Structures are given as C-alpha cells and as structure tokens.
Amino acid sequence: MHRYTGRRTKRSSSRHFRYLRWNPMFRPSHESLLRQNEEINRLELPRIADDDELEDLISREVLVPINANESLRFDPRLDPKRRYCRAWTRDFLADLSQAYYHRFHEQIQVNSAVRTVIVQRKLRRHNRNAAPERGETASSHLAGLTVDLQRRGMTREQVRFMERYLFYLRALGLVEPEEERRQWVFHVMVSDRYADWRGSQTIVPLERLVATETAQAPRVLDVAAPSPCSWCVPDAGESQSTVGAPGQP
Q: Which of 75, 103, 173, 228 has the fewest C-beta atoms lying within 10 Å of its C-beta?
C-alpha cells in the first residue's frame, strides 16, 4: 500500500515538473488568432477553399514554392502540393534558416505551410485543438501566410535563438508567432510588411541586429491563457489522414 502511494507521488511530481518547464515566450491565445485574421482581412486575401483554388494560385505565382536547401528541410510527410506560401513568407524563411544555419550548422524543418479549407476541416475531425476553417479565428494557413517550424529536438540555446529572433520581428509588427506545446512547433504568420522591411536591411546582418535588440527581451510576453480552440494542429501527412503527425495551427 505504501509502495503504491509512493509510485503515484513520483509520477505526479514528474508531471508537475514538466508542467512548470513549459514557459514559452509566445503562448498561443485567442487574441493571437484574431490578430492573424485581422492581417488576412487587411490584405483582402482569400481563404483557399480546395485544391482547385490552390492550383490556380500556384499557376499564377501568387503562391511560390518553398525550396529545400542546406539550411531548410521539410517533414517528409508534408504533401508536396502544400509546400507553398506567399512570397514574403518565403523570404522570411530564407532569412531565418540562413541565420539559424550560420549559428548552429543545422537545418530548420518546415512541418506545414499553405492549407485549404477542406484540409483544415479534416484536421479538426482528428484534433479538437485545431483552429477552425472559418470565422474570426480561422487558421491563417488558409491564406498562405503561415508556416509551422519544428521545435521538437531543439536545444535550449536553439529555442532561445528562435524566440529572440521572432521577438524582434514581432515588435516591429512583421510576424505573429506562437509556440505550440502539443505538436512542438513555432507557428509563424508573416505580414507582407516584411518585404519592405527586408529591403531596408542592407548594412547590418539581421542575426546580429536581432541579437543586439533582444538581449534584454522579457522571457514571457503573452500571459493570457489560450482559449480551448485557439490553436492549430499537425499538418504533415494529413493528406493520408495521419493523426498525431508533427504540424501546426
């Protein structure tokens, strides 16, 4: 009887320890999803309904391909048809992945990019934490602005690098990031303002600028608790209705 109670206490303590360790800089929230959708509405972008609309946007080069290289890779389960995004989001990925590779000599992994309403609806059947496909808190993946980047497997130093990098860009109103706990990804929506800002960065390397500006960045920015349906879900492998695959909001 005493031994049984001891084991329960140990497991309980372990769960409590893991809970205390989860202290992200960009906590998912209802307000963050509202901001993401406000940006989509400002740009008057459509939420992509199905594969026909997706193929049309790709053929007109409204959406551009994300290309794997020495600093960036894909989760192999991500459908090649959805390895696309807006041009400024691709620029953001190129800059971030190059800075990350320069610092750590490792690749950043993209777990999800553009989605359709149909795909998002399927995800919600398997994961109740998925953002809705419609409404004021719909997933921003539907407009091609957003990518999910693998967080699982990063060291504490690598996570800190990502947080500081995103902190600076968020302070400028260029990105809206979230750190998703269940799938362990950085969900990042990129504003079209990133393109103009990027063009102005011709002297100081971005990595050095970010490190300087965010040296004293607070550890936690958004302390609001996330709403029950405020976050997104795994995308990789969703064309085969894979449940629990790494992914994003």
A: 228
Q: Which residues pair with 65 in a beta bridge?
A: 84
C-beta separation of 246 from 152 below 8 A? yes
DSSP helix/strand/coil, 227: coil
Contact yes or no for 197/91 (Cβ under 8 A) = no
Every domain of the chain and the residues it spans: 49-248
* Other Cβ atoms within 10 Å of 88 Cβ, number: 20
Residues contacting 176, CB < 8 A, separation 6+ = 32, 35, 36, 39, 140, 170, 188, 189, 191
What confidence tier does 151 reach under pLDDT thresholds 50, 70, 90? Answer: very high
pTM for the predicted model, two decimal places? 0.74
Does residue 13 carry a pLDDT above 90? no
Q: Which residues contact 131 (CB under 8 A, 6 or more apart)?
A: 33, 120, 137, 138, 139, 229, 230, 231, 232, 233, 249
Other C-beta atoms lying within 10 Å of the C-beta of residue 73: 15
pLDDT in tens, 51-99: 999 999 999 999 999 999 999 999 999 999 999 999 999 999 999 999 9
Instruction: Determine if residue 147 is left, alpha or beta; phi over 0 gives left, psi from -120 to 50 gives alpha, anything else beta.
Output: beta
Q: For strand 185-190 and strand 247-248, is the pairing parallel, antiparallel, or unpaired?
A: unpaired
**Does domain 49-248 bear CATH number 3.40.50?**
no
- Give the ranges where the chain is alpha helix by DSSP (H): 2-21, 30-42, 51-59, 87-104, 117-126, 156-171, 193-200, 206-213
Q: Looking at the DSSP assignment, which residues form a beta bridge with residue 174?
A: none
CB 30 within 8 A of CB 227: yes
CA atoms within 13 A on the CB side of 77: 16
